[in-house]
Amino acid sequence: MLDHIDPVFQQAVFSFEEDFDHRPWVKIMETHWVDSIYASMIYVVVIFGLQWFMRDRAKLDLRRPLVLWSLGLAIFSNLCAFRLWQELFLYKNLYGWKSTMCEADIGYSGVNGFWSLLFVLSKLPELGDTLFIVLRKQKLIFLHWYHHITVMVFSWYSYPLLVAPGRYFILVNCSVHAIMYTYYALRASRLVRIPRFINVSITLIQMSQMIVGVVVNTLAYYYRSHGDFCSTTDRNLHVALLMYSSYFFLFAHYFYQAYFVRAPAKPSPKPALEKESNGVAYSNGVHANGAKHSNGVHANGVNTFKID
């Protein structure tokens, strides 16, 4: 139940949001953010080990688990995005856009702080996405696992630094995931037929996320370089800009390959094999052992049927 309406923002607030204290979590993440690197190493070993293990095995269906997995992440992402968008506009109206980018207290306490922490922690279980790709023997591209690893490590690394521009990183990522995982859940459920333009639109939205990241971090760098306060570090800004730029180029390359490059023509199917009375297959007049036929006579002089 809702406990009260915040008198300043006229926003419904739950007690677990209002009472959230980020300070203990900052101390925890200061010590344990490096665990995200260890988790990434284990993740890489597991996914490529499983890929090797599955190479000669039949793919698993996993459609129902995939629906539930995607639906769970879709619900979380939609709730996260909804609450953070509310907070963004409320604080913007009260303090202005610059404060939403540079004031850490706005992003780490209350409603925004609670959902931001859940977002950061959620990057670890989200690695499970890749298990579905590997076990269903779908194509695992570099962009997929690179994106998972770098987002998790950067989120865990940035949290204890009280990086104010991170609220935009979290907000936009939750918003994109809300759309993306809802799409995944619907596609896996096969309840509706999803038009191709939806696929294209989601990729474009993912690319726009990178543009927002570059713009916000560039503005934060501009404020700091002109002597204004902005709660971040130069190193974090440099890493963020490098990371967002790499995402943009990788997504742009994926977009081009997926929607503009024609797939190579499939080879024509091989002619059906016919069998001799002794059960040996022939094709186009060539015996299984490589000997040719001519007018129904095998190369070794044994009569057989003619293959046209």
Automatic annotation (TrEMBL):
<dbReference type="Pfam" id="PF01151">
    <property type="entry name" value="ELO"/>
</dbReference>
<dbReference type="GO" id="GO:0019367">
    <property type="term" value="P:fatty acid elongation, saturated fatty acid"/>
</dbReference>
<feature type="transmembrane region" description="Helical">
    <location>
        <begin position="168"/>
        <end position="186"/>
    </location>
</feature>
<keyword id="KW-0443">Lipid metabolism</keyword>
<feature type="transmembrane region" description="Helical">
    <location>
        <begin position="198"/>
        <end position="223"/>
    </location>
</feature>
<feature type="transmembrane region" description="Helical">
    <location>
        <begin position="235"/>
        <end position="256"/>
    </location>
</feature>
<feature type="transmembrane region" description="Helical">
    <location>
        <begin position="37"/>
        <end position="54"/>
    </location>
</feature>
<dbReference type="InterPro" id="IPR002076">
    <property type="entry name" value="ELO_fam"/>
</dbReference>
<feature type="transmembrane region" description="Helical">
    <location>
        <begin position="145"/>
        <end position="162"/>
    </location>
</feature>
<dbReference type="GO" id="GO:0030148">
    <property type="term" value="P:sphingolipid biosynthetic process"/>
</dbReference>
<protein>
    <recommendedName>
        <fullName>Elongation of very long chain fatty acids protein</fullName>
        <ecNumber>2.3.1.199</ecNumber>
    </recommendedName>
</protein>
<dbReference type="GO" id="GO:0009922">
    <property type="term" value="F:fatty acid elongase activity"/>
</dbReference>
<keyword id="KW-0276">Fatty acid metabolism</keyword>
<keyword id="KW-0808">Transferase</keyword>
<keyword id="KW-0275">Fatty acid biosynthesis</keyword>
<dbReference type="GO" id="GO:0005789">
    <property type="term" value="C:endoplasmic reticulum membrane"/>
</dbReference>
<dbReference type="GO" id="GO:0034626">
    <property type="term" value="P:fatty acid elongation, polyunsaturated fatty acid"/>
</dbReference>
<dbReference type="GO" id="GO:0034625">
    <property type="term" value="P:fatty acid elongation, monounsaturated fatty acid"/>
</dbReference>
<keyword id="KW-0444">Lipid biosynthesis</keyword>
<feature type="transmembrane region" description="Helical">
    <location>
        <begin position="106"/>
        <end position="124"/>
    </location>
</feature>
<dbReference type="InterPro" id="IPR030457">
    <property type="entry name" value="ELO_CS"/>
</dbReference>
<keyword id="KW-1133">Transmembrane helix</keyword>
<dbReference type="GO" id="GO:0042761">
    <property type="term" value="P:very long-chain fatty acid biosynthetic process"/>
</dbReference>
<keyword id="KW-0472">Membrane</keyword>
<feature type="transmembrane region" description="Helical">
    <location>
        <begin position="66"/>
        <end position="86"/>
    </location>
</feature>
<comment type="similarity">
    <text>Belongs to the ELO family.</text>
</comment>
<keyword id="KW-0812">Transmembrane</keyword>
